[in-house]
Amino acid sequence: MSEVSERLGRALLETVKRDDPSPFVEAVREVNPDPEEVRRFLEALRIQREKGRVSEDTVRAAERAVRELVGGEEREREVGVREVDPLAEYAGVDRVLGTIMTGKEADVLLAEREGRKVALKVYRAFTGREERREERAYRTEDGEVVRRVSRGDAALREYSLLRRAYEAGVRVPKPYDARPGVIVMQYVPGEPLYRAPDLRDPGAVLDDLLEQVERLAVRAGLVHGDLSAFNVLVSEDEIPFLIDLSEAKKVHEPGALRLLRRDVENLVDFFERKYGVTRDVDGFVSRVKARVRGDR
Predict the structure, then answer these.
(1) Which of 116, 72, 71 is nearest to 93 (CA)?
(2) Phi, psi torsion values for 94, nearest 5 degrees
(3) Which CATH number is 94's domain given?
(4) Are 158 and 246 in contact (CB under 8 A)?
(5) CA atoms within 13 A on the CB side of 190
(6) Active-site residue among 244, 280, 282, 295?
(7) Model pTM score
(8) Same domain, residue pair 63 and 91
(9) How far apart are CA 101 and CA 47, in angstroms?
């Protein structure tokens, strides 16, 4: 990390801690960073606003001050709102606000549609299931980083799996819409389980997660297949959501029940290591298998 980035990072943390734009604005004034670097830190500040850690007033004050510092009105479009956002237009949302998280195959972005926050899952890599090999490049309204959307049916497949799980009563982000390369879904403020703050009642969260896994198998007929602390989102009131169903399999497919055991072991191992909470993996998996087979 460069000295400039380190200075801006420390100032950003202080701005969030104090809910005061002054530390960040003063740092920008002192180090005179390039506009692209400022945009990255403004995006991080906006994400903190959406998580409720800093106020709207602080973010707006920081944006106004930064626009002045990097060159006035003629530079406003570089650090502020873009009038035309091709990704927003393609996804059917009003605007893209910033990045929530990145992954190997897709980014998850925060967007706004009809006055409501939504999440966009934007696929970046081909998966071998494409209907046509086409790629489009987009830029978000608050950054110059090119986001490439692979046009194929991987997003459509995951969207159908999400709908199947959601309609079966499994707690997943509600899927709203999809098109090749992009899924529009419910935005859940929170953190992935692996980096969530210490849970007040980890045993209750684990039991809730296991209930969702069982419901996914029995009611939706699906096994997540890639479940771990990275693919669980914990809301601010400690409600867990299953996310990223891109690897899900139908429960009667060969090997699906082995994946079920692995999913459960991953969850129980995490809770045992971090919280000292454990559950009977063998008993749980046996019960789910029996219910899936209709034994009881």
Answers:
(1) 116
(2) -75, -40
(3) 3.30.200.20
(4) yes
(5) 24
(6) 244
(7) 0.69
(8) no
(9) 10
Helix (H, G, I), strand (E, B) or coil at 79: helix
The answer to whether 177 is a known catalytic residue is: no
Catalytic residue among 94, 177, 226, 269: 226
226 is catalytic: yes
Give the model's confidence band at 79: pLDDT under 50 very low, under 70 low, under 90 confident, else very high: very low
Tokens of 201: 């009642």
**The domain containing residue 35 runs over which residues?**
3-79
pLDDT on residue 73: 40
Residue with tokens 């530390």: 23
Give the whole-angstrom CA distance, residue 251 versus residue 237: 31
Enter the tokens of residue 257: 């029940």
**Into how many domains does the chain fold?**
3
- The 10 Å CB-count burial string (b at 16+, else e) for 67-80 is bebbeeeebbebbb
**Block residue for tokens 């090999």:** 133
pLDDT tens across 198-243, in order? 999 999 999 999 999 999 999 999 999 999 999 999 998 999 999 9
- Work out the number of other CB atoms within 10 angstroms of the CB of residue 176: 18
Instruction: Quick: pLDDT tens for 89-133.
Output: 889 999 888 888 887 788 899 999 988 999 999 987 533 334 444
Identify whether residues 252 and 163 lie together within a single domain. no
